[in-house]
Prior knowledge:
This protein has helices at residues 2-11, 16-24, 83-86, 106-115, 117-143, 146-163, 178-185, 189-201, 217-224; strands at residues 30-32, 37-39, 47-53, 56-61, 67-73, 92-95, 99-105, 167-168, 171-173, 205-208, 211-214. By secondary structure, it is of the alpha+beta class. It folds into two domains: 2-135, Jelly Rolls; 145-231, Winged helix-like DNA-binding domain superfamily/Winged helix DNA-binding domain (Arc Repressor Mutant, subunit A), CATH 1.10.10.10.
Amino acid sequence: MNAVVEKLRRRDIITDEEMAALDGILEPPRKAAAGTDIVPEKAVTTQSTLLLSGFSGRYSTLADGGRQITEINVAGDFVDLHSLLMKHMDHGVVALSDCTYAAAPHSRLIELTERYPHLTRLLWLDTIIDAAVHRQWLVAMGRRSGLAHLAHLLCEMYLRLQVIGHVRGMAFELPLTQSVLGDVLGLSTVHVNRLISQLRAEGLVSWSQSQIQILDWDRLAAVAEFDPAYLRLHSAPV
């Protein structure tokens, strides 16, 4: 629960009673191996899923087998909170690394929304920020260069991981293969490899397997035209 509490606290005060209520709706943790579905594509769901550790990705698959990842989730994210109202998923959620997660049955979530209106607004804000992330990814996919798109992804992931205490200085872990990054960026593995090499050559990042260190935040953010406002990292009452 630490990650989700840290994320919610970044945006508003959350009381001990609210934390206990949120913890109380969760079922025992489960594990998902990298590459397996946490929520199958087009599933009809009766629960929402909180990611406790690892990285997952929302994805859609085309008829020819091509896959587009539309958001990366980190610890503390509800990967499908919107399924409380949507029920029928229009995408799937796959474990991009080994993950631990806990399910929150929709019946318990509904009871939570009726008893804790402030916590409900905080969770609603979480889904609104998800939508903002999707808009930024759409802009990146349609209008940014491949280099700017990757730079934007790194800036976003660094700040989201910083909120939950998963960075060390300017370094963080992003255990995604270049093939997975290709599904995120909509590019070939060869193109992804070239972009990583370019970021290294320009002295913007150090990138060794899954370990990434940002060497020049200001220049990386400038390449990405990155504005963190959409992540709403400031505290304000809801």
